[in-house]
Amino acid sequence: MSTAVSVNFDDSLNTRDFRELSSFIYDYCGIKMPETKRSMLEGRLRKRLRATGHPTFGSYCDYLFRHGGIETEAIFLIDVVTTNKTDFFREPNHFDFMAKSALPALAKKGFGRVRAWSSACSTGAEPYTMAMIMADAAEKGVISDFNILATDLSTEVLAKAHSGIYPRDLVDPVPPEFKRKYVMQAKEKHRNDVRIAAKLRSKVGFARMNLMNPTYEIGDPVHILFCRNVLIYFDKKTQTHVLSQLCKCLVPGGYLLIGHSETVTGIDLPIKQVANTIFMKQ
């Protein structure tokens, strides 16, 4: 019989361990961990202490950095560190722009088959919202077909996204017409979850990707690219790298959409602004 590991909740990250962890996290995925986030990091890492059998942060960090544990633990460490807030139709003007401007404009340029990329998809609400807009456009004959690549750094959120299962209240922002078409209700009345319809799930492919990679191997260039509420976690150097690589993945005339609290000011990119936080590749 296995014995549960008792984690010392009075234990805290000492300065050396915190600096090693924050340095690794920055190098691995570009997320800055200033001193103000030490207590947040402590709280999130307790889950990994339990899972790996380490009663203190000191023994966990020794395992990571002095006994080779980082090779197998890195993915799990990053999973608990990353923030994964997600909502359907979050920042809705972006989806209005897709439906009313981007997709018709792309079709006029000869891009009837549209490829999109949700580059920080979290648990999937963003790419499935994109899919609803694009499926509706295809049904109306605006475009002929579409597919969506959805990537994230966290394996945990990708698994949830692939399943397409969500708490019922998470889909409240979905318009009723789309909810009828694309959201399946559970037959059992007591269940409080719903599932994205298979016909929509089949249009979205999920994969793990680290935006700190030197280049982004995504296959053919995309026509619409969402990278929202990710840049805020990066310093200017990392923002420049990420945005430069994202632009290389866009077709000329394709669209890049970033979060409403984000900016590309001061970064030399081959794009022009066409709406608030929406840019077109030149």
From TrEMBL:
Coiled coil start-end: none
EC main group: transferase
Annotated keywords: Methyltransferase, S-adenosyl-L-methionine, Transferase
Binding site residues for S-adenosyl-L-methionine: N84, T86, R90, E126, D152, N210, L211, R228, N229
Gene3D superfamilies linked: Chemotaxis receptor methyltransferase CheR, N-terminal domain (1.10.155.10), Vaccinia Virus protein VP39 (3.40.50.150)
Ranges of residues in domain CheR-type methyltransferase: 6-282
Protein name as it appears in the record: Chemotaxis protein methyltransferase
Protein task: Methylation of the membrane-bound methyl-accepting chemotaxis proteins (MCP) to form gamma-glutamyl methyl ester residues in MCP.
SUPFAM superfamilies for this protein: Chemotaxis receptor methyltransferase CheR, N-terminal domain, S-adenosyl-L-methionine-dependent methyltransferases
The species this protein was found in: Agrobacterium bohemicum
Listed GO MF terms: protein-glutamate O-methyltransferase activity
Catalytic activity: L-glutamyl-[protein] + S-adenosyl-L-methionine = [protein]-L-glutamate 5-O-methyl ester + S-adenosyl-L-homocysteine
Enzyme Commission no: 2.1.1.80
Source organism, top-level taxon: Bacteria
GO BP terms, alphabetized: methylation
Keyword check for Oxidoreductase: no
Pfam family, one: CheR_N
Keyword presence, Cell membrane: no
